[in-house]
Known about the structure:
Blueprint: H1 4-29, E1 32-33, E2 46-49, E3 54-56, E4 64-70, H2 75-91, E5 96-103, H3 107-116, E6 122-126, H4 130-134, E7 142-146, E8 152-157, H5 165-172
Parallel strand pairs: 4-5, 5-6
Antiparallel strand pairs: 1-8, 2-3, 2-6, 4-7, 7-8
Amino acid sequence: MLNFSSRITSLFVILFLSLLFAGFLLMREVDTVKIEELNLSLKNFQLKDLQGNNHTLSGYKGKTLVVNYWASWCGPCREEIPAMNRAWAQLKSHEVVMLGINFGESATTVEEFVQEMPIDFSVLLDEESINSSAWQVSMMPTTFIINAHGQLIEKILGPREWDSDEMIKKIIQVK
């Protein structure tokens, strides 16, 4: 028969493993956040790109936007960059703009990363993670699809095959 401390320890282990498993299931289930569930109005931003040019959300009115938050230390972000580059090659002729907003890293770190792994679309810097916080980015990668009127259409958590026919068609159809 187990003594009292062994029972408590066993109970905590079971509880911990249950919570861990539940968290895993939640992360697998939360792929796309329904807009009605978001309490999010997109805050205008003013961020610099790697060349020092300013970009604002309001400056892209009239175009569909794909805004991807990423970081160099994020494995899934690294995995999806080649597919995003291929998607960008197809989307840029369709009044679509793709922006990669780096989460909390210095310009030097991002420049070194882009030398190692080229990114073909505009890379913006959110060095203090202020915009990421305002947009409720809680995991990497997180991607927002925004229509030409500046309205949030979809918030996507985790990596995707951005160059798949289905995803390309879905983005092009956003108006």
